[in-house]
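Changelog note: in this version the structure field was regenerated for every chain. One regenerated record is shown below for reference.
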Amino acid sequence: MLGRCLVSAYKKDNIDIIIVTLNANTNTQRSKDTIYLKDYILNNYTSVSLHADIYEAFQNFLIENKEIYFKSFPSSKISLSNEFNNIKPFLIKNNSKISFKINILPILSYNKNIGEKIGTFNIYENDFLLKSFDINLLSEIKKLDFNFYFNFILKNLI
């Protein structure tokens, strides 16, 4: 004999919760299990928008690494993928540590096209990867000529 099942949906603030209770022995047990799970989530998790934090971390990366990545390709620009613009709030366990890690190609070689993936922006809750965004080129990188390298060396010697 199959137990009792229940699908429940709750919404509080920015948190949408869907709970599926399967194979309960009684209607009372099914309801208790569902309420327990809902209360546990509401008491131990928070809806967090990380959009501003991600944007700030990415902009800081660009500033801090300008010399490393973009000095030799001064007209090149990079951006987070379009998916970043549509990011939804995350359901984060209370007291969790959120961190970001940016992985990007160590050398941006020439002949790269607009939109090409050159790295990832990763979001972690403690050590668990929550989300990863591609980092893409907004401008192409063409093979640089002798004049560019000559001027680049000359500027750096002075």
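Spot check on this record: The radius of gyration is 24 Å. The chain has a mean pLDDT of 82.
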